[in-house]
Structure formats: structure tokens, C-alpha cells
Amino acid sequence: MTVSARSALPEVDGALSADLVTVVGNLVDNAFDAVGAGASPAWVEVEVTAEGGDVLVTVRDSGPGIEPALAREVFAQGYTTKAEHHGLGLALIHLVCTRRGGAVSVDGSTFTARLPRSTAPAVAR
């Protein structure tokens, strides 16, 4: 398997750093699972960059990808295609991204997470 990683990210604060570990770790883990049983050559690409006031995490792999009809469903807690997993990884990524005011999406075998470098102040309810 070939793994490539690129990062052009300036220093970030501790909270964003912890969120990035969660997002990147879960996306890479899922990518490794996706290419593990697939055809050769297997590859995973990871890119972390700054874009405006956001950090953009993109993980692509040579796995089969996600059907367009499931592009939103895969982020729901409990959704899984793996026999011995609980469907928490992508749900956790979605939670981390949206809690910061960002988002996560999938297009085939490309996952993109956008995390604002600073979080918006909470609005009183």
C-alpha cells in the first residue's frame, strides 16, 4: 500500500489540534479499512491545508467509495458497513466538525472535513 501525506498548516491552538487528531485519525483508519481488501495498487492520500480561516482535511483512497445515495447517511451514529464496528467514527467526525461550525462531506472515496480555526461564540438559547 502507498500512503502519501501533505500538510501546509501553520501552528494551531490546542483545541483545534485535538479536533484534527480525531478527524484525521478516524478518516485515515477508515481509508485503510477501505483499501485493505481491495485490488492493487492500494493507496491512501492525506492532505491538511489552511484555506482562509479554515483548516481543510482531505483523505482519498483507492477503495470502492461511498454510493452517492448514502453520502449523508454514513455520518449518522450507528451506520457501518463493517461487521464488527459500531458506526461511531464518521459520526464523531461529523460532531467535531459541526461543533466548530464546520462540515464534513464525502464524494466517492474522497472525504473532506472543514474546521474553522476559531469557533464561533455560542448563542444563548
Automatic annotation (TrEMBL):
InterPro entries (UniProt xref): 2C_sensor_his_kinase, HATPase_C_sf, HATPase_dom, His_kinase_dom, Sig_transdc_His_kin-like_C
EC primary class: transferase
Known EC number: 2.7.13.3
Reaction equations catalysed: ATP + protein L-histidine = ADP + protein N-phospho-L-histidine
Organism: Phytohabitans suffuscus
GO biological process: phosphorelay signal transduction system
Gene Ontology molecular functions: ATP binding; protein histidine kinase activity
Protein name as annotated: histidine kinase
All residue ranges annotated as the Histidine kinase domain in the record: 20-119
